[in-house]
Amino acid sequence: MITLPSTPPDQPLPAYQLYGEPAPAQGSEPWHLETISARSRLHDWEIRPHRHEGFQQFLHLRSGQAQAWLDGRTEPLTGPCVVSVPPLAAHGFRFEPGVQGHVLTVQAAHLLPLLQRLGAADGTLLARLGQPAHLPLRRTPALARTLQALVDELAQEYTGHAPWRAQTLDALWLRWVLGLARALPDTTPAGAAAGPPRRAHDHLVRYRALVASRFHLQPRVSDLAAELGLTATQLNRVCRATAGCSALDLLHARLLLEAQRELAYTRQSIKQIALALGFADPAYFSRFFQRLCGQSPQAWREARRPASTPVATAPATGEPAGFSPRGAGGS
To answer: Which regions are flagged for Low complexity bias (predicted)?
Structure first.
């Protein structure tokens, strides 16, 4: 089992391009693929909790066992399985030495236009990709073989130099994402309308992007709506039709998620977390958290972070930063 460090860091959850690599590389490729062992063995088979800004990541465990931490919950992993990790989701892994598998990473800003050009970037698909998920494959051998074959093709193409390599990688990535999304659980809210109009869906995607970049500033919904060319009333209609809740609910949900990540994976004080999330008064933050979760921040932290949950630290690494055309990547 993994135990908490005796002197936990007083730092927020680290965000990397790849594990241990905080800075992007210029001219880097939008995809990355490596074996699980390529990076995890450098860190004693432990990838401590962290997150990625702007990258969709998939861990394909072909064989062996591991433990995953996904946004505050612990998941035992047994190969074959896939773990899907959206941008900014807190995640970490502890692998048994010698596990077999790959880590596949793609820039979200590259993947989304590919899906949009196919008309595949609908609310259901984005909702499935937008939540951390663990997909066991032991009881679906046909799907396991299909996904393994795609990983093998991606690995061969990624390390090769054949003509139209980039176009082939894009095509393989689309097959991987669409095939996997079919098998992931549907997380579309029960109150959302079926088949929202394309314009409404596009507004929702843009609103979520604004929320993701501004939530810590606690902007007014009316200001965000104006950036989208909408009134607050129009934005609320869009959110209720496509997400089943109000625009303010989505903003508060993002604030709450960030608070839970910091509570679960760091030793920052309640006051530090409150200030980082734009709350001038820690007491107001505690009331906000209590109202949405039914528990105080401290009670939630104590209940959901047992002694076996690792605390985020920045690993010492001499690896070059960011993606490289054939460089090492990470979880």
So the answer is: 306-317
